[in-house]
Write a structure and sequence with these properties.
The protein has 236 residues and is mostly helical. The chain has one domain. It contains 11 helices and no strands. Helix 3 packs antiparallel against helix 4, helix 4 runs antiparallel to helix 6 and helix 8 runs parallel beside helix 11.
Length: 236
């Protein structure tokens, strides 16, 4: 347990030393300010945006989680480049414990911000229990992205390229709200699709629990697969 606290403390120090990471860390708060105060002003000036305000809310919730995934993914890549994983191999700590300790702060801040976005953002009509479940599902993107970068990237340059690709892929499901093509539902291979559809169903009175359950199971399958792969390639 002491080791986990030391890792979390060191990660925070590293994050605040890097200007890019520091900016990413505060992005969720900026997203809340945008949704809560700036978006209503923009919609008042440009009413054509009003039908898409829920989509903008989906994007804000997704990005507030993915930012922490990118931060901790790059911390993994830092350790790869410095061969620190060689040390972690002899430490009695599992991949799950390592990831959990590192994402605790990011997961908590992201969840809190997303709850504020849903509960006080002024967009949509959600029950509190729906908001809590949506927050938890969206926040699963953080460990998913961290594991994805930590598993498939060898250095930070590769991680930067993958970060752009991952961000594009996660945003692709939003096209279903702009283009009337049934083929776009093939973007369900990207987990963000299920978070978007869950939020949509909660707002419109659709089958919320169906989308939430299917999406959460899909998230957990991906996380389990990445966790095993990460353990084999990095910590063993």
């Amino acid at each position: 347990m002491k080791l986990l606290f030391l890792l979390s403390h060191q990660d925070l120090r590293t994050t605040f030393r890097d200007p890019i990471f520091k900016g990413l860390l505060f992005f969720p708060l900026l997203a809340f300010v945008f949704i809560r105060w700036l978006l209503p002003l923009i919609i008042e000036r440009f009413p054509i945006i009003l039908p898409y305000q829920t989509v903008i809310l989906m994007w804000a919730c997704m990005q507030s989680a993915t930012m922490f995934g990118f931060i901790y993914g790059f911390l993994f890549l830092d350790e790869k480049e410095e061969n620190l994983f060689q040390v972690l191999r002899i430490v009695p700590i599992s991949t799950f414990q390592l990831l959990s300790s590192r994402l605790l702060v990011g997961f908590s801040v992201s969840s809190f911000t997303n709850f504020l976005l849903l509960h006080t953002g002024g967009i949509g009509h959600f029950k509190v229990w729906e908001e809590v479940l949506l927050v938890l599902q969206f926040s699963l993107l953080a460990p998913l992205i961290a594991l994805l970068l930590g598993t498939f990237s060898r250095i930070k340059v590769e991680g930067l390229a993958q970060m752009k690709i991952v961000n594009i892929c996660l945003n692709l499901p939003a096209l279903i709200y702009f283009l009337p093509s049934p083929w776009l539902h093939l973007t369900a291979v990207f987990p963000s699709y299920w978070s978007f559809r869950s939020l949509e169903a909660a707002d419109s009175g659709g089958n919320f629990l169906l989308f939430l359950t299917l999406g959460t199971v899909y998230y957990l399958i991906i996380l389990y697969t990445l966790n095993r792969r990460f353990g084999k390639t990095a910590l063993q």
